[in-house]
Automatic annotation (TrEMBL):
Belongs to the cytochrome P450 family. Its cofactor is heme. It comes from Stephania cephalantha. Heme binds at C332. Its main location: membrane. This is Cytochrome P450. One of its GO terms (biological process) is secondary metabolite biosynthetic process.
Length: 398
């Protein structure tokens, strides 16, 4: 399953999905600026809620990859109440999970549900299940037995997760029942939407607070991409500084400060600690990424640390100290997809628009963290943007 969805060949085939989502974001940002022109105010900076925009983009990518449907952007945003509800649910997916359910620790409290956590989660689960059930049924009707061959030819080069899952269900309906399919779709959304959006928000916040880094990024983009054209997936390998910005962002603000807990199958030794069989072990990624023993000036934003050093050391030596997606067989299978979405989006918005902090740039962007399962910004990022002159023509035709 993982191989079919996240392998290199599948990621290459799905590049069109990422391009469409990014192009939709660029059109949206451009339309905001053209509203000023229509009002006679000229090409001025427009305030943008980047937290929302990046979340919409990630949601669109996940929806397209999972179901083949794209519903955000170009006037389709909030097209139906069910999509609007699911979109809002995902925006707050990890908030309820942070609050402690007393009944998990003292069973007697299950009868009281003092904080109404269990009741709230039960209601959310019921609505969420109905939404996913509707997606599956709609997909099943559109891909009934009479249309299978026709759809195969049409979609053979760009299969969604549902295409793969229904193909597997036809081979083994017991193993791949509807419950498994709904769980897989939900996992794609919850694991892939918030995470990419948060990283993009952190990256833009860091760049706005470090204009010298932003200047270097623009220099790399303008010197490696032909004038007046949009960035493609194939360009990303020629943008090492952009990649290093993303890596440094993930180092300072990893997607999840703690990896998913693992149970020791056998007695083993972790560092200087003896770990008995059956012990739950949790890796503190945040602490590893800011360990002064392995990272010089660990709290500073220095993308250059991920570029090849003068001593000839490169990223290969950073395998065990840089683990934003985990490591080994239990690492996040969607890491490759996430890095592609983040890189294409970040490079595109920097390439096409000029960015400034609000309030004439007098105040630094607030980099406070919110305490949740993931690591979001405590204060949503808002910034000013306007099209770069050299990209005006391309944006007007996007």
């Amino acid at each position: 399953m993982t191989t079919k969805i996240f392998c290199s060949s599948s990621l290459l085939k799905s590049s069109g999905v990422r391009h469409d989502a990014v192009r939709c974001l660029l059109r949206d940002l451009y339309k905001s600026s053209t509203n000023n022109i229509a009002n006679g105010s000229g090409q001025q900076y427009q305030k943008i809620d980047l937290k929302l925009k990046f979340f919409e983009l990630s949601f669109n990518v996940m929806m397209s990859l999972s179901t083949g449907e794209a519903i955000i952007g170009d006037g389709l945003c909030h097209s139906t109440e069910e999509y609007k509800w699911f979109f809002e649910l995902l925006k707050n997916a990890y908030v309820p999970s942070f609050f402690m359910a007393p009944g998990d620790y003292l069973p007697i409290f299950k009868y009281f549900d003092v904080f109404k956590v269990e009741r709230s989660l039960a209601e959310i689960d019921k609505k969420r299940d109905a939404f996913l059930e509707a997606i599956i049924e709609r997909f099943r009707k559109e891909h009934n037995v009479n249309n299978i061959e026709k759809k195969k030819k049409k979609r053979s080069n760009n299969k969604s997760l549902l295409d793969v899952l229904f193909s597997l269900q036809r081979e083994d309906s017991e193993q791949y029942n509807d419950l498994i399919i709904k769980t897989m779709i939900l996992t794609m959304f919850t694991a892939g939407t918030d995470t990419s959006a948060m990283t993009l928000e952190w990256a833009m916040s860091l760049l706005l607070n470090h204009p010298e880094v932003l200047k270097k990024a623009l220099y790399e983009l303008d010197n490696n991409i032909e004038p007046h054209r949009f960035i493609e997936d194939s360009d990303l390998s020629n943008l090492p500084y952009i990649q290093s910005i993303i890596q440094e962002t993930l180092r300072l603000y990893p997607l999840a400060p703690f990896l998913i807990p693992h149970e020791a199958a056998h007695e083993c030794k972790v560092g200087q600690y003896e770990v008995p069989s059956g012990t739950i072990v949790v890796a503190n990624v945040w602490a590893i990424h800011r360990d002064p023993k392995v990272w010089p000036e660990p709290d500073k934003f220095v993308p250059e640390r991920f570029l090849q050093s003068s001593a000839g050391e490169n990223k290969s030596g950073q395998f065990n100290k840089f683990i934003p997606f985990g490591v080994g067989r239990r690492g996040c299978p969607g890491g490759g997809l996430a890095t592609r979405v983040i890189a294409l989006t970040l490079a595109s918005v920097l390439r096409c628009f000029e960015w400034e902090k609000i309030n004439n740039g007098d105040e630094a962007i607030d980099m406070s963290e919110e305490v949740q399962f993931l690591l979001p910004k405590a204060k949503a990022l808002e910034a000013l943007c306007k099209p770069r002159p050299q990209m005006l023509n391309a944006l007007s035709q996007a």
